[in-house]
Amino acid sequence: MSFTLESYLESKRLIVEKGLRDIFKKPGDCPKILWESMKYSLFAGGKRLRPILCLASAEAVGLPEKSALRIACGLELIHTYSLIHDDLPSLDNDDYRRGRKTNHKVYGEAMAILAGDGLLTLAFQWIANPSGYPEKYKKNIGSVIYELAWHAGYPGMVGGQVDDVVSEKKKPSLPKVLSIHRRKTGALLLSSTRLPALLAGVSSAKVKVLTEYGRSAGLAFQIVDDILNETGNSKQLGKSAGSDRERGKMTYPAAIGLEKSKKEVRLLTEKAVTSLKIFGSKGEPLKALVRHMAERTH
Fold first, then answer.
1. What does the pLDDT read at residue 244?
2. Can you name the CATH fold of 5-295?
3. Model pTM?
């Protein structure tokens, strides 16, 4: 049977949606306004790329989907928190995300900050719960949590965000852009591909392959984002187009131009695809996903 990406994306998206809604069935002791604010951004219609990458990586290494889904949902909670905070007036000051008003425009800045805090901590609570895994995987939960904290924290996503902020209006530098992209966006995408392997306890060779894949795919994804911000329109993107240039952001097009940026995406995509030979047919979803990420228009 041939692999069809469209049906794969939709089936996995539905699995992730159900997993996220299971987390948000009842507010419990959570204040109602905070609960609503978190749900507003979490269920705003995102592509669920990170959790789908996580599920695809789990397939490649033979990790059961039920166990991988806990990590996948945690990754989406962290990603959503980062978007809420990125959109704040003190950072990117965006009014729209995914085609509708950003969290702080609806619930106010204070509640948006707290919603992000709530989603971040809930992610670690959800992934760390040992009752969600078969006995043979429980010994690896600590390694998963440690790595996720590393990639989500100042060595990864938060540090990349800091450099992104302090580099605004400065002369574009390719080494600086590369550093920002590998951490601000690439770190969490790398977690999406590595964490299932760590939980499953597979060989170091397979972990290395998924690391190479994740690094290449993550960087290509952000370069495409840079290109689309430069060439797309706000309706396509669901957020303000041309905002990177207006703010003097460090981007690949600003550093090396649009055509060289597009070439780099092609090179990184093929590098990611080539790295997956060790997985044979089990790597087909990952191959299709990285190509999809490179060719997307929003």
1. 76
2. Farnesyl Diphosphate Synthase (1.10.600)
3. 0.93
